[in-house]
Amino acid sequence: MKSVSSKILLVSAVTFMSLSALALKDDTNQPINIVSDNQSLDMSNRVVTFTDNVVITQGSIVVKANKVIITRPEENSKKKDTVEAFGNPVTFHQMMDDGKPVDGKANKVFYDLATEFLTLTGNAELKQLDSKINGNVITYDVKKQQLKANGSSGSRVKTVLIPSQLNDAKGKK
């Protein structure tokens, strides 16, 4: 359980690195705390579900959701865990090493540890200071460090970049 939460938080942090500098290096070494109003464990299906006011913290990372489902595969299946978070919206916050906060949100967040692929669906947004990306779906391939944003039939992807903030990020690398 701790390993799964650690990996999703690490992947969330990596996702937001594409917008700026490195996240606080110490975050991934901090204890992971998960609190919720309810928790259930289905041992036969290897599923842990946290519901109602779910808050996951690790260092400066804070994830809030209405529901989080962590599914673990059979021991020798060579598959890896999946994590789904649902909310109105699911929110993410982290401080970066450069002191700037990064925030993200979506109605659903899905992370497959096997493929290291993160998907933010429904009113998805990634934001750092005044720069942000909005779309119906934002995906991040951790291995390839590639981010994609897609609109829906009724909306387009919107990106706002603040030149002075981009220049500050370049100067600190």
Short description:
By secondary structure, the protein is mainly β. It contains two helices and ten strands, in the order αββββββββββα.
Identify the notable features of this structure and list them briefly.
mainly beta; 2 helices; OstA-like_N; transport
How does this model look, in words?
The protein is mainly beta and 173 residues long. Helix content is 14%, strand content 51%. It contains two helices and ten strands, in the order αββββββββββα. It has helices at residues 2-17, 163-171, and strands at residues 33-35, 38-42, 47-58, 61-71, 82-95, 101-112, 117-128, 131-141, 146-150, 158-160. Strands 1, 2, 3, 4, 5, 6, 7, 8, 9 and 10 form a ten-stranded antiparallel β-sheet that branches. Strand 3 (47-58) and strand 4 (61-71) form a beta hairpin. Mean pLDDT is 77; it is low at 1-23. Residues 33-145 form the Organic solvent tolerance-like N-terminal domain. InterPro entries: LPS_export_LptA (IPR052037), LptA (IPR014340), OstA-like_N (IPR005653). Belongs to the LptA family. Residues 1-23 form the signal peptide. This is Lipopolysaccharide export system protein LptA.
Q: What is the count of helical runs?
A: 2
Percent of residues in helices comes to: 10-25%
Task: Please mark out the parts with pLDDT under 50 across 5 or more consecutive residues, or reply none.
Answer: 1-23
Largest sheet: 10 strands, antiparallel
User: Based on helices, strands and strand pairing, what is the structural class?
Assistant: mainly beta
Quote the beta fraction: over 45%
Shape: globular
Number of strands: 10
Straight-line N-to-C gap: 35 Å
What's the Cα radius of gyration? Answer: 16 Å
The arrangement of helices and strands along the chain is HEEEEEEEEEEH
Let me know the average pLDDT. 77
InterPro entries: LPS_export_LptA, LptA, OstA-like_N
Domain Organic solvent tolerance-like N-terminal: 33-145
Protein name: Lipopolysaccharide export system protein LptA
Subcellular location: Periplasm
